[in-house]
Design brief:
Helix content is 69%, strand content 0%. The chain is mainly α. It folds into two domains: 184 residues, no CATH class; 60 residues, no CATH class. The radius of gyration is 22 Å and the shape is globular.
Length: 338
């Protein structure tokens, strides 16, 4: 069970963090008293840019695999596509709420709308993958609903709107809660409460899964079930609490110095580049290890190697950012004469 949970966890983590980041940006624009339409244009445009990067990435993958990759790979719904679509949907939701609510209850409305949308997406996922499939749509469009691609049935290895965008909406709700005045005043308590709720979600998910009767005609815990969505959100909240505790009560207690360097912050500062490059060395033709034949020990060494390589890449990217002219001048510098 735990290997399945861990193996499917990066995508929910990416989307949840995208939702929290989206809340931070929206909050910043909102406190500047910008009109809802302007906030929506800014945030939705960013989502469209991420979606365009996803399409470019699919094109790159197709060109790298030229000769054996099918043309349909250009229309595959990957996680970057879904992050972009999620951000655009988050922007639409925030625009609607901010346009309707302009009083003190606006934050509460944003939290409830975000959490409610996450729950609704989770509840609609099982039928949209089975009994309510929109198979009347062309497969490139249906694939964004349930990941059917061109294979006739939904594929668990793709990242359609249902259920994956639910994690972004859950992150949006969490982000608005964490930025509230009450949360800022009782920061430690709020994070500990989030971890407690996460543990409760995990227990509730396992309890619901063990029930003899299920709500849906076709029940698939590991792919479409709202119960599995619940356990993933619970794990995300526990990780959020653990990250806060580490930063405040471990790293935060150390004196400033090189030992306070954070690999996660460093990777986060170049996350798109790291995502783009690491896929080539993990899944692409440049894979550092042959696929499907590795032992746990060898795969662990491979994981360590790719982590360190991407950390170095992120470090170089942040150090060289904005220094292109300086580097070009150094390259063109004439060699010293003898």
């Amino acid at each position: 069970m735990y290997s399945q949970l861990g193996g499917t966890f990066p995508a929910p983590l990416f989307l949840f963090l995208a939702g929290i980041s989206f809340a931070l940006v929206t909050e910043k624009l909102w406190t500047k008293n910008l009109p809802p339409a302007q906030i929506a244009r800014t945030t939705i445009r960013r989502g469209a840019e991420i979606f365009a990067f996803g399409l470019l990435f699919r094109l790159q993958e197709y060109l790298i695999a030229w000769g054996w990759a099918p043309l349909s790979d250009l229309l595959r719904v990957d996680v970057l596509n879904t992050i972009g679509i999620s951000m655009m949907l988050l922007g639409i939701l925030c625009w609607l709420v901010l346009s309707i609510h302009r009083a003190e209850q606006t934050r509460l409305a944003l939290v409830l709308a975000s959490a409610g949308t996450a729950v609704l997406i989770s509840l609609l996922t099982p039928p949209l993958w089975t009994t309510w499939r929109p198979d009347w749509l062309p497969w490139p469009l249906e694939s964004y609903i349930n990941g059917v691609h061109n294979l006739g049935t939904p594929q668990a290895w793709l990242f359609p709107i249902f259920p994956w965008t639910a994690f972004a909406f859950a992150g949006l709700a969490a982000g608005f809660i964490l930025q509230s005045e009450g949360a800022r005043k009782r920061e430690a308590l709020i994070f500990l409460l989030a971890g407690t709720v996460g543990v409760a979600f995990i227990g509730a998910s396992r309890w619901l899964d063990a029930r003899p009767h299920q709500l849906y005609a076709v029940y698939d815990y590991w792919h479409t079930s709202p119960d599995f969505f619940l356990i993933r959100v619970g794990m995300l909240l526990v990780i959020l609490t653990a990250s806060y505790a580490w930063c405040r009560w471990v790293i935060g207690q150390l004196p400033a110095g090189p030992w306070t360097f954070s690999p996660l912050i460093q990777l986060g500062q170049a996350s798109l580049l790291v995502y783009w490059v690491h896929l080539q060395f993990v899944y692409g033709r440049l894979s550092i290890l042959p696929k499907h034949i590795q032992s746990i020990r060898t795969a662990s060494f491979g994981l360590l190697a790719i982590f360190l390589a991407m950390l170095i890449l992120a470090f170089l990217r942040t150090r060289m950012k904005g220094r292109g002219t300086e580097m070009l001048a150094w390259i063109r510098r004439p060699a010293p004469s003898d």
